[in-house]
Write a structure and sequence with these properties.
The chain is α/β, with parallel strands linked by helices. The chain folds into two domains: about 180 residues, Vaccinia Virus protein VP39 (Rossmann fold); about 60 residues, Beta Barrel (OB fold (Dihydrolipoamide Acetyltransferase, E2P)), CATH 2.40.50.140. About 30% of the residues lie in helices and about 30% in strands. It is built from seven helices and 13 strands. The longest helix has 22 residues. The chain is elongated, with a radius of gyration of 23 Å. It starts with 7 loop residues before the first helix and ends with a helix. The model has no long low-confidence stretch (mean pLDDT about 90).
């Protein structure tokens, strides 16, 4: 006999008028991590049947857009797009709806069609969530937030690292409304980074000034980078980025060209 999937959250969703039990996952994620706030513009990727759209509308009350390959049954106050999130045409439609400034939050509770082969299903999940991440980076406003469902497996850490490259704050969270036996987990990325650099990038820079705390300061495309090593104003160095914040980054010095030049002249 098939397992009865009608648990407490299933019946609660029926009683409270939500389209799916998944509604409570978003409530719990937001209660813990405060991703969505009143008035936010939200885009839900892979939104059918619409359970998260209903919650997003209730929490935010702002502009809500749902995107899916399938048609989404009408929800009052919610706009929908029937399209593929990897398509440039779909991205263009989303931006037209939310405005050039972008969305405050992108959410995605989508899951791939399951085959029963765990390795295959995990790979499909990572592929889908990677597409969601790339879409989110195109439609989010600077410092925007991201929530996505991922199936755990051997590629999960690599995916988390990708999210960390793009957001200031990244966490994995399992809401109580997820079934105990489920391998799903939700990745939360807060404050989209729009810096012209990322962790582990390397640059040749000139130290332009020394800050009030003694940190050397350089610029990469007008973006402020603080040195964690002792440097002098005017020194030419090669740096490696070790941390990125919305307004600035930190770097370590991995090469000092002035010293190399001096050594070559002495030879």
């Amino acid at each position: 006999m098939a397992r009865d999937r009608r648990d407490t959250y299933y019946w609660r969703a029926k009683d409270e008028g939500y389209r799916s039990r998944a509604a409570y996952k978003l409530f719990q994620i937001n209660e813990k991590h405060e991703v969505i706030k009143e008035g936010d513009t939200i885009v839900d990727l892979g939104a059918a049947p619409g359970g998260w759209l209903e919650v997003a509308k209730k929490i935010s009350g702002g502009k809500i857009v749902g995107v899916d390959l399938r048609r989404i049954k009408e929800i009052e106050g919610v706009e929908t797009i029937k399209g593929d999130i990897t398509s440039d045409e779909t991205i263009k439609k989303i931006i037209e709806m939310v405005g050039e400034g972008g969305a405050d939050v992108v959410i995605c509770d989508a899951a791939p069609n399951l085959s029963g082969n765990w390795s295959l299903d995990h790979a499909r999940s990572i592929d889908l969530t990677t597409s969601a991440l790339e879409c989110a980076k195109k439609i989010l406003k600077p410092k925007g937030h991201f929530i996505v469902k991922v199936f755990q497996g051997d590629m999960f850490k690599e995916y988390m690292d990708k999210v960390r490259e793009s957001f200031t704050f990244t966490r994995a969270f399992s809401p109580k409304a997820s079934r105990q036996e489920s391998a799903e987990i939700y990745v939360i990325g807060k404050k989209l980074l729009t810096a012209p650099l990322k962790i582990d990038d390397k640059f040749d820079v000139t130290i332009k000034k020394i800050g009030s705390k003694g940190n050397g300061i350089a610029f990469v495309e007008d973006f402020v980078v603080f040195m964690q090593d002792e440097v002098k104003k005017g020194e030419n160095v090669r740096i490696k980025i070790v941390d990125v914040k919305p307004e600035f980054a930190f770097a370590i010095v991995i090469g000092r060209y002035d010293e190399e030049l001096k050594e070559n002249n002495e030879e």
